[in-house]
Specification:
With 97 residues, the chain is an alpha+beta fold. Helix content is 39%, strand content 32%. It is globular, with a radius of gyration of 13 Å.
Length: 97
């Protein structure tokens, strides 16, 4: 999955990197426009660049670790259901241990 994010256009990837670095300093709850809650412990990183918009879903673990569950480059205004389902499935897997 990280490979997918590494393959994002460079400006979107740079935005993602800046946001995740800020999360490591300040914690995962940066709020809009950088992060957004999706409920049940699922959050979204909102990376934006000239070449488009990238989204990465993550969860925050008890050990203060942030786990990136799924990332994609957004092509529509709304978050595609398919992408959200992948993230929710991975979140459940992490929560089960």
């Amino acid at each position: 999955m990280q490979t997918d994010i590494d393959d994002w256009p460079s400006d979107i990837n740079a935005s993602f990197t800046r946001i995740t670095e800020q999360m490591m300093e300040s914690g995962p709850n940066l709020g809009l426009p950088y992060t957004k809650p999706f409920g049940d412990g699922l959050f979204e990183i909102r990376a934006k660049g000239v070449e488009g918009i990238g989204r990465a879903f993550f969860c925050s673990l008890v050990s203060r670790k942030i786990l990136i569950l799924h990332g994609f480059v957004k092509k529509t205004q709304q978050t595609p259901n398919k992408e959200l389902k992948i993230a929710r499935k991975r979140l459940k897997e992490v929560q089960r241990g």
